[in-house]
Design goal:
Helix 2 packs antiparallel against helix 4 and helix 4 packs across helix 5. The protein is built from 7 helices and no strands. The longest helix has about 30 residues. The radius of gyration is 18 Å and the shape is globular. The protein has one domain. The chain has about 150 residues and is mostly helical. Helices cover about 75% and strands about 0% of the residues.
C-alpha cells in the first residue's frame, strides 16, 4: 500500500495508483491460490483418511490413525477456509503447523534439506502472512465484519 509520502519515493511515481488499486486483489489472489494448493493436497487425504497413518507414525505422531485423519481434515479444511476468507487466521495457523511439520519431514526425516523443503517453506511463509494479517479484502471475514 502506498501513501503520499511513499508515492513520492517511488522510482516511477506514476505507478503509485496502480499499486494501490492492485494491492487488495493481489493479496486475495495469493490467499485463494494458497487455499487451492492446500485443497489439492488435502483432497486425496480425505478420500483415504487413514492412508497417511504410517507416515505420521514414522515422524513420531501416535496413534497414526488419529493424526492421519486430523492431517486430512486440517489440510482440506484450512484450504477451503482460506479460499473463502472465513476464520482466516485460525485456518492459516493450522496450515502453518502442517507445513512446518512437512518441512521437518522432508528436511530432517528424509534428509532432503532445502531442496525437499523449499515448497513447504514458501507456503508456510504465505500462511504465516495470513495468520498475522487475516483476510483484508474480498473475504467472508470482511463481509461479516468479524475477524478472529
Amino acid at each position: 500500500m502506498t501513501d503520499s509520502t511513499t508515492r513520492d519515493k517511488l522510482v516511477i511515481p506514476v505507478f503509485g495508483p496502480i499499486y494501490r488499486l492492485m494491492s487488495g486483489p493481489a493479496e486475495t489472489l495469493l490467499r485463494v491460490v494458497c487455499g487451492v494448493a492446500l485443497v489439492v493436497h488435502g483432497l486425496p487425504k480425505i478420500l483415504d483418511p487413514f492412508g497417511a497413518a504410517g507416515m505420521v507414525e514414522s515422524i513420531g505422531f501416535w496413534p497414526g490413525w488419529f493424526w492421519s485423519v486430523l492431517l486430512a481434515v486440517g489440510e482440506l479444511g484450512s484450504g477451503v477456509l482460506l479460499i473463502i476468507g472465513f476464520l482466516t487466521r485460525p485456518a492459516a495457523v493450522v496450515a502453518t503447523v502442517i507445513l512446518l511439520v512437512t518441512v521437518y519431514f522432508h528436511w530432517i526425516q528424509l534428509d532432503q534439506g532445502w531442496a525437499g523443503s523449499e515448497k513447504s517453506i514458501l507456503w508456510a511463509a504465505v500462511t504465516i502472512f495470513f495468520a498475522v494479517n487475516g483476510a483484508r479484502t474480498l473475504s467472508v471475514d470482511r463481509i461479516i465484519g468479524r475477524h478472529f
